[in-house]
Specification:
The complex is a heterodimer. By secondary structure, chain A is α+β, with helices and mostly antiparallel strands. Chain A is built from three helices and six strands. In chain A, 22% of the residues lie in helices and 30% in strands. Chain A has a four-stranded antiparallel beta sheet with strand order 2-3-5-4. Chain A has a two-stranded antiparallel sheet with strand order 1-6. In chain A, β4 and β5 form a beta hairpin. By secondary structure, chain B is α+β, with helices and mostly antiparallel strands. Chain B has ten helices and 20 strands. Chain B has an eleven-stranded mixed beta sheet, sandwiched between helices. In chain B, β1, α1 and β2 form a beta-alpha-beta unit. Classes of the chains: A alpha+beta, B alpha+beta. At the A-B interface, β2, β3, β4, β5 and α3 of A face α2, α8, β14, β15 and β18 of B.
């Protein structure tokens, strides 16, 4: 079923120089193990690029942190030369995570 | 040992130091004042006045709180020294003297690599500071300091240092050090551990009560419980702690000057209301090099926002762009146009019927992006699309910095603790 990623996925994002990073994890709640397995399976660099079209040409790393129920994503160069130089709307990527949570994705109905 | 945090950045809630000292028992109160951008801001302060270059808000907090901290025996440990920890230490001594208090103030230095920037291959930098670990802070506390101010230590070192001091960990107590780094990382951003900037905000009370600042109860083995003072706002839950653990990390290995932390080993567990236990953290040898925060002058920038309202918004934008770009002479190195969205059709408020067209310019020189740019935009006020208006008056250019990480061999950096009586100890 198509629904916002943030239905049960939390996020926090920020910057390190010109790189943006975002953590995505499954909030404490029902079906948590199954939801974590689903999240770990869908978040790949190409998925991130499709969700964040402006990262289409960038190197993206995804690191699994199953112990925390999520993944750490690094979008290399999204912020150009960093916060003081970036012309991006959100130069520190503070709201990148909330944007991702609002993107619509297909979530298996048994996880909802 | 209970270690609190009262600052996540330079500009955080000024009253937090008093709130943390009065709100419940603590052994050490820490504060992080330094972001990458902050070093640049302090660098500009120092250019104007060489006696500055530290976080001035820490001085105001000390004026208000030094007496309570001393009375309660709470050590203050902060990286508020920025580019001038010696200057901040002497300023805090003046504050103590002015208040009639006797406080031992120490500082940690050696992080500032500017004097050797070119020989270390760091280029034409405005600021260049190695990220130091926690052992200097530990030495300062062992030397009897009531207040320890540092320059660029890692944020987590503010917690690692007091743990090394209290628990006597060695350089190779990697698992213990890693536990302290994780605890330090969780509280370094203040209320981001207690419900601030939290995706799960709908589960918070969301009333007017300010979010409480976090603290960690550290155990000898490096495990900890994250909590906050009773009766303060916000929430400490597995999710609020996860949020902060996930923040600003660059992969599964979290590198610090004292230890490399395996983030896949961290275990979080509910330990009662507003309590989360952190355990299982594994560490290993730290990297051979130290990371350096380098800021360079990138150039100058400026920006204008044009309001476009009602019909034919794309045509209005295109005409303005054509007019303004033709007048930019010399053309700035970077000219970027963005328009966030189209206004609503048949809108019932003028704001909903409008959108913003933003033009950002950058150049290595100030002139092309100064009044030559904003003046050219303003001169179109009566000479362009219908409904021309701006969100702000025309501005002058402002300089911007570029942060980049660099790496230097450890033996190029001599970390020194300067105790209250002026004795200097090299940290080994």
């Amino acid at each position: 079923m198509t629904t916002p990623l943030g239905t049960f996925v939390h996020a926090r994002s920020g910057d390190k120089g010109g790189d943006a990073n975002v953590g995505l994890w499954v909030a404490q709640g029902p079906h948590r193990d199954e939801r974590v397995a689903w999240l770990l399976s869908i978040v790949t660099p190409s998925w991130v690029r499709s969700m964040v079209p402006e990262a289409g040409d960038l190197d993206v790393d995804v690191f699994a942190l199953p112990n925390l129920g999520g993944v750490n994503v690094v979008l290399h160069g999204l912020l150009g030369e960093g916060v003081a130089a970036s012309t991006r709307f959100d130069p520190q990527a503070k709201a990148l995570g909330e944007w991702l949570r609002s993107r619509h994705v297909d979530i298996p109905s048994e996880l909802l | 040992m209970r270690i609190g945090n009262c600052s996540g950045f330079y500009g955080d809630r000024l009253s937090a130091m008093r709130e943390m000292l009065e709100g419940g028992p603590l052994d050490v109160l820490t504060g992080d004042y330094l972001a990458e951008l902050t070093m640049l801001i302090l660098g500009r302060d120092r250019m104007k006045d060489p006696s500055l270059g530290y976080a001035k808000t820490f001085v105001r907090q000390a004026e208000d709180c030094l007496g309570i901290a001393l009375e309660k025996g709470v050590r203050l440990v902060a990286n508020a020294g920025g580019l001038n920890p010696a200057g901040l230490a002497s300023r805090i001594r003046e504050v103590a003297t002015g208040l009639g208090l006797s406080a031992a103030v120490a500082h940690v230095e050696g992080d500032d690599l500017m004097p050797r920037a070119s020989s270390l291959g760091l280029g034409d930098a405005l600021t260049a500071n190695a990220y130091l670990g926690g052992f200097g802070i530990a030495a300062a506390l062992s030397g009897g300091a009531d207040v320890v101010v540092t320059g660029r230590v890692t944020d987590a070192s503010l917690v690692v240092g007091p743990c090394v001091w209290r628990f006597g960990w060695g350089r190779s107590s990697y698992d213990e050090l890693a536990g302290a780094v994780v605890a330090g990382h969780v509280i370094e951003c203040g209320t981001q551990a207690t419900g601030g900037n939290f995706s799960g905000f709908l589960s918070l009370p969301r009333d007017a009560q300010p979010l409480g600042f976090p603290l960690v109860e550290m155990a000898t083995d490096g495990s900890s419980v994250v909590t906050k003072h009773d009766g303060t706002g916000g929430l400490v839950s597995v999710d609020t702690v996860t949020a902060q653990l996930m923040y600003e990390v660059q992969g599964p290995s979290y590198l610090n000057p004292d230890v490399s932390v395996d983030l896949t080993s961290v275990q979080l567990a509910d330990d009662g209301p507003d309590r989360v236990r952190v355990s299982g953290v594994r560490g290993s040898e730290p990297p051979a090099s130290l990371k350096v925060c380098v800021n360079e002058l990138g150039g100058f920038r400026n920006q204008m926002e044009f309001v476009l309202t009602g019909l034919d918004v794309d045509e209005k934008a295109a005409w303005l762009r054509a007019q303004l770009e033709q007048r930019l002479d010399p053309r700035p190195a970077v000219v970027e146009w963005t328009m966030s969205r189209h206004p609503a059709l048949d809108a019932t408020s003028e704001e909903a019927a409008s959108c913003l067209l933003r033009c950002t310019v950058k150049d290595p020189k100030p002139e092309p992006v100064g009044r030559a740019f904003s003046g050219a935009g303003v001169e179109l006020a009566l000479a362009s699309y219908p409904g021309f208006t701006l969100t702000a008056p025309p501005a002058k250019e402002s300089p911007y910095g570029i942060y980049r990480p660099a790496y230097v061999p450890r033996d190029e950096v001599e970390e020194v603790v300067v105790l209250d009586d002026g004795r200097r100890e090299v940290v080994s």
